[in-house]
Predict the 3D structure of the following.
Amino acid sequence: KLVLSKLLPLKDYGYFSLAVLVASGVMVLGVPIGGALLPRLSRLHAENNDDGLLVLYRKSTQMVGMIAIPAALVLAFFAQPVVLAWTGNLEIAHKAAPTLCLYALGNGFVSLGAFPYYLQFAKGDLKLHVIGNAMYFLVLIPVLVWAVMHFGATGAGWTWLTLNAVSFLFWVPIIHRRMATGLHAKWMVRDIAPIFFSTLVAASLAWRFITWPNGRLPFIISIGGLSMGLVLIAAAFSSWGRDMIRRQWLQCFPGKEVA
C-alpha cells in the first residue's frame, strides 16, 4: 500500500484500497483458526505424536478451505455486482472489480499457503519460512513497481495473484517435503482439490446461468444464498466436512445414519 500510494493517482488508489478491503474477507477465518491451531500442533509435536499432528493439520486445512475457497470464487466471479451492491455506485464497482477479482484469488492462495508456516512453527524449524519470505519480498517490490507503472492497480492485482500462486504451487511442496515426507500429495489431492474443483464448477455454472435480481437487498440475499450453497458443496466434497455433517446428523437423529 505504501508503494502504491506513491505510484497511483489518488482516485485510483481509493478504488484499489476498496478492492483490497473487500478481498481481505477471504482470510477472515484463517487468522483465528491459525491462532488456535499453533499451540495444538506444537503440543502434539512435543508429545512426539506426529500422526495426530498431521491429522489435525489436514483437517484444519479442509476447514479453512471450505470457507476461503468459496469466498474467493464468489468475489472473483461476481466482483462487480458485489461492489455495486455494497456501494451503490456503478463507477466504483466498474473500477474496483478487476483488482478485487485478482486479490480475492490471491488471498485464497494466502489462506491455504499459511498452513505450511503453522507446520514449521510447530516443529520449531522456520529456516524455510525465512528464506521463502525473503525471496518473496525481493521479487515482490520491483515487480510490483513495474506492474503498477505499466498497468495501474490491475497490475498490482496480477502481481499479488501470480506471486502467491507460484509460492503455493512451487514453494509449499519443498516445505512439506522437509517437514513430513509424503504429506504434500495427500494434502493437495485429498484435502484441497475436491473442495476447489467442486466449488469452481458450481461457481462457474452460477455465473453462466443465474439471472440476478435487481436491487441491492435482493442481490445481497441471493449472493449470500449462493455463498452458503458453495460452502455446503465444499463440505460435501471434504472428508472432514462429511464427517462433521454425519456427527451433527447423529446428534439430532440418534440411530439414523446418513445415507
Observations:
- Residues 23 and 104 are 5 Å apart (CA to CA).
- Residues 50-77 form the longest helix (28 residues).
- The chain is about 85% helix and 0% strand.
